[in-house]
Specification:
Strand order of the largest sheet: 6-7-2-1-8
Distance between the termini: 69 Å
Mean pLDDT: 81
Low-confidence stretches: 1-17, 676-683, 712-725, 1102-1114, 1493-1501
Oligomer: single chain
Number of helices: 41
Strand content: 15-25%
Largest sheet: 5 strands, mixed
Helix content: 25-40%
Length: about 1500
């Protein structure tokens, strides 16, 4: 802006004499606005005025003049119309002039006194302090000054702002004190003159001071204030020493360098120290920014040698490993803690370590706790009260346990008895019963929000319970707060114990507001008042009169709320701390708008008319008003008497105080400052008003006495001048008779009129009675119609909800519903129900859920007036809230967090990807980007759920990829976006948003609207960039000639070219070719040549004869001629299969090398391609020899089966373990097999050679190639049976009767499936408990059957052999000992033994009986049982020896670990950790380890 001003001033200097000199300015102002009228000659019109922050730009006939204003304005709120301009001031005050340099303006400039504000007084200006100890800082040298000083302290001031004179004197004194200290400078800046600095500092009329550090950015200075202390004279004096101390505290670097010696000493130092163990510069900057609030509390440091200091502190420097996170170590007095996090989490971590787990609240530390920005968990206790002492102690222990689990998220404080007044803000009314637990976001008055924990039973009884149960409920409550699931608590009065009765005023408190107001089905008149109002008795009597008048009217209620003790909802629109009494009409059930009484002087008559006007209930206004008149006179009269008594009592107290003050003045010689200064009346407006009333009363009384004296005097004068007169009786008699006659006549006339009036009144009364009947009938009809209409409006009931990981439970309290009228509708994201109660009134609710549910798995039940609904979540996880918009549900929504399932895991919301080049999209912006409206080539979108943390790492590569492509001008057409799938749930479901480890990214191309590409998320930025680059290019390129073909042909290892007979729009085979090309993105180039193009026309070498090519080009309707070219291998392959079904596999196979290796990178390529892989294992000495027999054989196979099977060569020494999956012997090399795809669960097919002919077979490459080619043909024709993992028996092994036969998968078909005997088969694992004893059990059974040829006993190691699915459905690694009876092959049947016993000595007899029961052959059982009884003791003894051996091994291992622990502890490895071997129960530990395999305490172990 400064540079622009210089340019404007240069042009202004040349054009100003000709333009500005002819302009006429008139201006005026008030405190916030400047008004300017501009007039110019007709020759200079049209006139254009442009507004800037500090100047007015005038454009006249193409010439520009710039007038710099005295101070800054806000152009966005300023207006211009014609020649009138209204400028909004940035700082509200009176300007001393309009322009910065009035002398430079040659036109007419005058003050418009008619328009200006005369109410505003002119502001007096002060001269800013000047001292040799102050620096001269301007905008030009500001950066240089900051760099030259360790600490530069600036005081931005306006001369018209006079409130900071005392602070500025202290500032100058501090400059004098610090003048000798190097590296510290102080300056006072006139920001009216230095406007650029004023805008930079956002200067205003305040006394703030800014401290800049040379090693920190100037955009974020430290704010300071000059402290003010109470002076001896009663005023406030600046604290220079405190101000200098605050500057000295900030002088050292925010992050100090830490040496090895200092690191060793810091482990035992009492000063808290936070150490950053990272050499990343961005992490250092974030660490330094996080250290700012800790100045004076915690010292921050960063070592030069990170690895060495990490070794001294006993931590691993790269323990975090994650990009964007750094390791921070906190040290203090033999206590240390580590944390891996970003800049936003360092502050909470350090604060949580700096403060104790549960600290004692101190008022002096309140500002420190609030400056942390962390929520505060508060526990009120009272250890001095006998009744609450034990509960307080236990509550504190539970809070400590909860604080350990929530450390870093909440700060726990214990509030003593002296701070129970804080409970009023949590909705707790006096008297307070502690312990009480709550959470506050701030502690100051009228700051932050508060939430109170309401225990399921009385507080003392609850906290006296089991510590772990109490702590778990406190943790659940805290997590519900962190997830935003709690309702805010507010101040509330004490609940009235007596129930409300009709005809009385209902006193409502906030804790009962929902039940008494929102859930009420009555029309309500509510008064908002404060209890200490002046006319409280009269106003109370008036409201009681209104309530009494409405006693017999059903469906109405009169309430009042004391706003001095209760929170008032915002929709009442009542001013905070207002002392006015206001009246409102509240419709039934909270539906509709609250209506305020508009009058200023309410009476009972006005209130009743107002209530009648808006009420939905019909009543007779006349009758109610008559009752109010009858009742109100007595109530109001009593209230006035009470009010007079209160006033008289108050006056008496004031008189007593005045008398005491007069005595003190007389006795002690005290002086009333108010009387001396003449401000007594001003300071006491009540006394002034009373004095004025008394003066007027005395004046009126004086005037009345004067008039009375005057009348007496005139009467006396008249009596003295007139003498006594003789009486004239005749005239008096005549006059008397005349009067009597006149009176009789008048009396008769009056009686006549009275009779006529009576007759008219009776007739009118009859008519009125008839009309009243009609009005009553109409009113009754209207009332019934309104009641019927009200019954049709459903009332939303209170809803309590809880959840598990898979379900959500809703409970609606309905009262007395009619179950036959219930109608429930559940959709995937909405819930509706309607039901009538016994009175016919509708209850209902309509909700839109936060996330989707499965309607088919949801159900509901109406029982005992409660509608219970079970919703099955579409995605099992913890919802952060129930509804999309909680405020829209008027019935009240309460989270029953105590009813949540114990297995509920509250997920913390994770930050979605953000940064340069990433757009956060909603449904509208997403469709705009996808449709190509923004002119983009491609849109890359990540659909993410904030609660899902599986993609945190992969999303970092998404951010880096977006940032890299955002800076690349060549990729300006690529847009990266993120969609919050929880907020945009319909969009997320449409595009299959999931919470999985794949973390897919979806690609949309406006030129391919019907195709959506899905890219798996990548951990490395380069991998994701490659995937995105693949989709930038078109799926199929058009080749017009040789030049374009050579350009694309050289860029890819694999090129697939289709020579089509038609063009792109008419050829019917184009869609199938494009589908394959889209699936092959990144693996090769797909190109097309149209309209009968031939290989020769694009410069392709003549791979085929001319006639064949011409024949293909001239025949229409045939598929295209497709060639796959491999330039690096100098070969081409012609495709002859079906274009739609075969070209994809053909292209994927040929995109891989002809002979591939099998390292980690290539294995991933084969896995992504998903093609069949032929594997040839050779010995290690042959593996590295080029042109060996293995290479020859494998090359022949690759060429013969090109496009069908890819071939790789493996080193048996490194990859021989893979041969087990094929059932191949690792010692017989070479070996060959085919896998359906590179996947652990893929089917595998082994090529088997007769062991005796193995060497001869592989010595002849021609024969081997031919046989293997036939094997590949059989595989492609699906004629082969899959091979499986197997062990290999010794070639000399033969089974003898009386022994257990060893079976492997290689011999399973022969020894089991093809056997004619009934077989008792054991599947086992050698790692099972009591393996030797269980082996002996089977041997005993086999020995007892030694003389029987009809049956045999066999076993197979399930951990080393494949197990057929028909035999068991369990995973192989979970099989320990399963027994089966398999009958002969004529009636094949498999039966599993279900009676396994822990008493192994009984197993032989049970197995033998099981075999006899299931056997299909006839043989006697009894002759074989005696052998079972003979070996019982031997089996029991063997089992005991085996368990003793296991126990001895465990004891040896524990002793070895204990010795190792003592050695490490002696070396100081566990210093600062409370570890003691004496507390370890070795016997219990050994018992647990012995029982681990039996499933006891498995979860804890």
């Amino acid at each position: 802006l400064a540079a622009a001003c210089l340019l404007w001033q240069a042009s202004w200097a040349a054009s100003l004499p000709a333009v500005a000199s002819e302009l006429r300015f008139s201006w005026a102002q008030d405190k916030t606005t400047v008004y300017i009228d501009v007039d110019a000659p007709e020759a200079r019109k049209p006139l254009d005025l442009r507004l800037h922050v500090e100047a007015i730009e005038i454009v006249v006939q193409g010439k520009t003049a710039l007038l710099e204003l005295r101070e800054d304005i806000d152009p966005s709120n300023s207006t211009a119309s014609g020649g009138r301009y209204v400028l909004h001031k940035r700082n509200a005050h009176q300007w001393d002039r309009l322009l910065q340099r009035p002398a430079d303006f040659k036109g007419s400039l005058r003050w418009n006194w008619k328009r200006g504000s005369h109410a505003e007084e002119a502001e007096s200006e002060v001269e800013l302090p000047v001292s040799t100890d102050l620096l001269d800082v301007t905008d030009a040298n500001f950066e240089e000054m900051v760099g030259d000083h360790e600490a530069l302290v600036l005081a931005p001031r306006y001369p018209w702002c006079t409130r900071c004179q005392q602070q500025d004197k202290a500032f100058v004194e501090a400059a004098r004190v610090l003048s000798d200290e190097p590296g510290v400078g102080l300056a006072i800046v006139d920001v009216r003159e230095e406007k650029v600095l004023g805008r930079r500092f956002q200067a205003a009329c305040s006394c703030r001071v800014l401290l800049f550090k040379g090693d920190e950015p100037t955009s974020d200075p430290y704010p300071l204030t000059v402290p003010m202390n109470m002076g001896e004279s009663g005023g406030y004096d600046p604290d220079v020493e405190g101000f200098v101390a605050s500057i000295d505290k900030l002088k050292p670097p925010a992050v100090q360098k830490l040496s090895l010696e200092e690191a060793k000493a810091a482990k035992n130092a009492s000063t808290p120290l936070a150490v950053l163990l990272s050499s990343d510069h961005d992490a250092y900057l974030s660490f330094r920014a996080a250290s700012r609030p800790f100045r004076g509390y915690v010292q921050f440091a960063a070592p030069g040698d990170v690895a060495a200091v990490a070794g001294v502190l006993g931590v691993v420097a790269d323990a975090c490993g994650d990009e964007g996170k750094a390791l921070v170590v906190f040290l203090r007095s033999n206590h240390s803690a580590t944390h891996c996090g970003n800049s936003s989490s360092v502050g909470p971590f350090v604060w949580s370590q700096y403060f104790p787990l549960v600290g004692k609240y101190d008022y002096g530390m309140r500002d420190v706790y609030e400056s942390t920005g962390m929520p505060l968990a508060l526990l009120w206790t009272n250890a001095t009260d006998y009744h609450m002492q034990d509960a307080s102690v236990k509550a504190r222990k539970a809070a400590v346990s909860a604080a350990k689990k929530l450390r870093g998220q909440l700060l726990f404080l214990e509030m003593g008895p002296g701070h129970t007044y804080e409970l009023k803000r949590f909705g707790e009314a006096e008297p307070w019963e502690v312990p009480v637990f709550g959470i506050a976001t701030a502690l100051g008055w009228d700051k932050g929000k508060r939430y109170v924990f309401i225990p399921p039973e009385p507080p003392i009884q609850f906290f006296m319970g089991k510590k772990s149960a109490v702590a778990s409920q406190l943790v659940a409550f805290s997590k519900a707060f962190l997830n935003g699931e709690l309702e805010e608590a507010h101040e509330s009065g004490k609940i009235n114990a007596t129930a409300w009765e009709p005809g009385t005023v209902h006193e409502v408190v906030w804790r009962r507001y929902r039940q008494d107001i929102n859930e009420s089905r009555m029309d309500i008149l509510v008064e908002l008042y404060i209890g200490h109002r002046k006319n409280h008795p009269t106003m109370t009597a008036m409201l009681e009169t209104v309530a009494a008048a409405l006693k017999d009217v059903s469906g109405v209620k009169v309430c009042r709320i004391n706003t001095a003790q209760n929170y008032v909802p915002a929709y009442f629109d009542r001013e905070r701390y207002s002392d006015k009494s206001e009246f409102y009409y509240v419709p039934p059930g909270g539906f509709g708008k609250v209506i305020k009484y508009p009058g200023s002087n309410p009476t009972q008559k006005k209130l009743l008319k107002f209530f009648r006007k808006h009420s939905t209930v019909e009543w007779s206004s006349k009758e109610v008003l008559e009752v109010a008149k009858d009742v109100g006179e007595e109530k109001v009269a009593r209230a006035k008497v009470e009010e007079d008594d209160q006033k008289r009592s108050k006056e008496q107290r004031q008189e007593m105080v005045q008398e005491m003050l007069q005595k003190l003045k007389a006795e002690k010689g005290l002086v009333d400052v108010g009387e001396v200064m003449g401000v007594k009346g001003k300071l006491d407006p009540e006394a002034e008003k009373a004095a004025a009333e008394e003066k007027a009363k005395q004046k009126k009384k004086k005037k009345g006495k004067k008039a009375q004296r005057k009348d007496k005097k005139s009467t006396a004068t008249a009596a003295s001048t007139m003498g006594p007169a003789p009486p004239d009786t005749s005239k008096a008699d005549a006059e008397k008779r005349k009067l009597e006659a006149r009176e009789a006549k008048r009396k008769a006339k009056k009686e006549k009129k009275a009779a006529e009036k009576k007759a008219k009144a009776e007739a009118a009364a009859a008519r009125k009675a008839e009309e009243a009947k009609k009005v009553a009938a109409r009113a009754e009809k209207k009332k019934k119609a309104r009641e019927a209409a009200m019954r049709k409006i459903p009332v939303a009931p209170l809803c309590r909800w809880s959840q598990t990981m898979a379900d959500v439970r809703l409970h609606f309290t309905l009262g007395n519903p009619d179950s036959t009228t219930l109608n429930v509708t559940i959709t995937e994201d909405c819930f509706r129900f309607v039901v009538r109660d016994q009175s016919g009134r509708l209850n209902g609710a309509e909700m839109e859920f936060r996330e989707f549910v499965v309607p088919e798995l949801c159900h509901h039940e109406l029982k005992r007036g409660v509608l219970s609904v079970l919703l099955h979540k579409a995605r099992p996880h913890a919802w952060d809230r129930l509804l999309v918009n909680t405020d829209q549900y008027k019935g009240g929504l309460k989270k029953a967090w105590a009813a949540d399932s114990s297995d509920l895991v509250i997920e913390e919301d994770h930050d979605l990807p953000e940064g340069p080049g990433i757009l956060h999209m909603n449904a509208s912006s997403f469709e705009t980007a996808r449709n190509g409206t923004l002119g983009r080539l491609m849109v890359v979108v990540a659909f993410r759920y904030p609660w899902c943390g599986n993609c945190t790492e992969k999303d970092k590569s998404f951010e880096e990829t977006a940032r890299a492509m955002y800076r690349d001008e060549r990729l300006d057409g690529v847009v990266f976006g993120v969609v919050d799938a929880r907020e945009e749930k319909h969009l997320g479901r449409k595009y299959n948003a999931t919470c999985s480890d794949e973390c897919n990214v979806t690609v949309f191309k406006p030129d391919e609207p019907d195709t959506i590409y899905t890219i798996p998320g990548k951990k490395f930025t380069g991998e994701l960039q490659v995937e995105v680059y693949k989709h930038v290019l078109p799926a199929v390129h058009d080749i017009e000639g040789p030049e374009r073909f050579e350009k694309f042909h050289a860029a890819f290892n694999t090129t697939v070219i289709g020579f089509f007979h038609g063009n792109r729009t008419t050829d019917p085979h184009v869609p199938a070719f494009i589908d394959v090309a889209e699936s092959m993105r990144g693996r090769g180039l797909f190109a097309a040549c149209w309209d009968g193009c031939t290989p020769e026309s694009i410069g392709l070498p003549r791979f085929y004869a001319d006639a064949g090519v011409v024949e293909l080009a001239n025949e229409t309707g045939r598929p295209p001629f497709v060639l796959v070219l491999k330039p690096a291998e100098n070969r081409s392959v012609e495709f002859n299969g079906d274009l739609a079904s075969d070209l994809g596999l053909f292209s994927k196979v040929l995109s891989l090398p002809l002979l591939g290796s099998y390292d980690f990178h290539s294995r991933q390529q084969y896995r992504d391609a998903g093609v069949p892989v032929g594997m040839l294992w050779v010995s290690s000495h042959e593996f590295g020899v080029s042109g060996s027999r293995g290479d020859v054989i494998l090359r022949n196979l690759a060429q013969r089966h090109a496009g069908a099977v890819s071939m790789v060569k493996l080193n048996a020494s490194a990859d021989g373990i893979l041969m087990r999956m094929y059932g191949l012997e690792p010692w017989r090399l070479p070996a060959f097999g085919i896998a359906d795809r590179e996947d652990f669960y893929a089917d595998r097919f082994a090529f088997r050679v007769d062991p005796e002919q193995h060497e001869a077979f592989w010595e002849d490459p021609g024969r081997a190639s031919q046989e293997l080619s036939k094997f590949c043909d059989d595989y492609r024709a699906k004629k082969l049976e899959p091979s499986h993992e197997t062990l290999f028996l010794n070639s000399n092994y033969t089974w003898q009767p009386g022994h257990v036969q060893e079976v492997v998968w290689g011999t399973y078909q022969r020894d089991v499936n093809h056997s004619t005997q009934d077989i008792l088969l054991e599947l086992y694992s050698p790692q099972r408990d009591n393996h030797h004893t269980q082996t002996a059990v089977m041997q005993v059974v086999a020995h007892s059957l030694r003389s029987l040829d009809l049956v045999k006993v066999a076993r197979m190691d399930a951990s080393q052999n494949w197990v057929p699915p028909g035999l068991t459905t369990r995973a192989r690694d979970s099989i320990t000992a399963d027994y089966f009876v398999i009958t002969g092959n004529i009636t094949r049947r498999v039966v599993k033994f279900r009676g396994i016993s822990r008493v192994l000595e009984h197993m032989p007899e049970r197995l033998l009986r099981f075999l006899h029961e299931q056997s299909t052959l006839e043989w006697e059982l009894d002759p074989h049982l005696p052998d079972m009884k003979l070996v019982t003791e031997q089996l029991e003894e063997m089992k005991g020896h085996e368990e003793d051996a296991k126990k001895a091994a465990m004891q040896e291992w524990i002793e070895h670990e204990k010795a190792e622990f003592r050695r490490l502890k002696g070396e100081g490895k566990f210093d600062g950790m409370d570890l003691n071997l004496d507390n370890i129960n070795v016997e219990g530990l050994m018992a647990d380890m012995m029982n681990q395999g039996r499933g006891r305490r498995k979860k804890e172990l």
